[in-house]
Design brief:
InterPro entries: HTH_MarR-typ (IPR000835), WH-like_DNA-bd_sf (IPR036388), WH_DNA-bd_sf (IPR036390). The protein has 145 residues and is mainly alpha-helical. The protein has six helices and two strands, in the order H-H-H-H-E-E-H-H. The protein has one domain: Arc Repressor Mutant, subunit A.
Length: 145
């Protein structure tokens, strides 16, 4: 049975609208918390991925963060201009660009690890442990991870 039909669909009550609104609110909270570092919420995923070593190329970051490669390039340009990361060609395959945090980028990424839990915990403060676990389970089910 479909959840939405032309007769009952209301954009402001749709799952997509509500998820996007929640994401925008979290991003605004994170932007405010990271203002001292001159970075934005959208930068945090990149910096954290580089800190953890999980994604170290523009292509792998774009896939991991579900961002198109053009936007990824623009964000990386900004982060490089801020002195947070450097790009270098892979020695084995010159087509591959490797990314590495600078000392300033490393310090910023470490600061994100301090700030992000506070921002998220503030939004989740009215959730029980069971509700938190269920929210995560349902989000993973929705994105099919």
């Amino acid at each position: 049975m479909p959840f939405y039909t032309p007769d009952n669909y209301q954009q402001s009550e749709s799952v997509g609208f509500l998820l996007n609104k929640a994401r925008n609110q979290l991003a605004a909270d994170m932007d405010a918390a990271l203002k001292e570092l001159n970075i934005r919420a959208q930068h945090s995923g990149i910096l954290m991925s580089l800190l953890r070593g999980s994604c170290t190329t523009p292509a792998s970051l774009a896939r991991h963060l579900s961002v198109d490669t053009g936007l990824m390039t623009r964000i990386l340009d900004k982060l490089e201009a801020l002195g947070l990361l450097v790009r270098s060609r892979d020695l084995a395959d010159r087509r591959v660009v490797n990314l590495q945090l600078t000392p300033v980028g490393y310090a910023a990424a470490l600061r994100i690890t301090e700030v992000a839990p506070d921002v998220l915990n503030e939004r989740l403060q009215d959730f029980s442990d069971v509700e938190y676990d269920e929210l995560r389970r349902l989000l993973h089910k929705l994105i099919k991870e």
